[in-house]
Amino acid sequence: MTVDLAGILDDGTNSMKKAIDHFETELVKIRAGKANPNILDGIVVDYYGNPTPISQVGNVSVMDARTLTIQPWEKNMLQPTERAIIAANIGINPQNDGNTIRLFLPPLTEERRKEFVKRSNTEGEHAKIAVRNIRRDSIEHIKKLQKEGLSEDAAKDGESDMQEITNNYISLVDKHLEAKEKEIMAV
Question: pLDDT tens-digit profile of 103-133?
Fold first, then answer.
């Protein structure tokens, strides 16, 4: 029975790691003043009828602190790439010069910075909810094991271990949010 309990705790921990990894990925997409190619993650271009990530249609690079360039591998992909960026509504208008697409990131206003902080806090709340749901599922599995013959003491220990793991991951989310807020609010 204790092997099953350890398996439940391990599964819960692995699922929480995945939730944190997803959260970190979402945080990277939130702009923080400097040009970062990751803000284009999630934008897909219609590549001959197939939705394809922008990074697979061309070379995305950082020219300077406020400029991104996209050099499509095929010249006829300039228009679809430009349309995809406009449709993504990331707050940046692409400049097409016939060879490359330039994205000039405007300096962030105080209001826009607060909006980005709010968005990152929302992502943090989603991550915390995911972690708590994983905890709930794990505790339900532990209670199921208890009905199947696991001792009450072992079940209580398993539940408290799961709660401790959950607390660690929740505090990790808070640390990420604090660092992202500092990054966004830095002028």
Answer: 888 777 888 888 888 989 999 999 999 999 9
- What's the whole-model pTM score? 0.75
Q: What one-character DSSP code corresponds to residue 21?
A: H
Whether the CB-CB separation of 166 and 156 falls below 8 Å is answered with no
Alpha carbons 52 and 43: distance in angstroms, whole number? 8
- Can you tell me the distance from the alpha carbon of 140 to that of 148, in angstroms, rounded to the nearest whole number? 13
Rounded distance between C-alpha atoms, residue 129 and residue 99, angstroms: 45
Left, alpha or beta for 104 (phi > 0: left; psi -120 to 50: alpha)? Answer: beta
Structure-token match 């300096």, residue found: 107
Partnered with residue 103 across adjacent β-strands are 68, 94
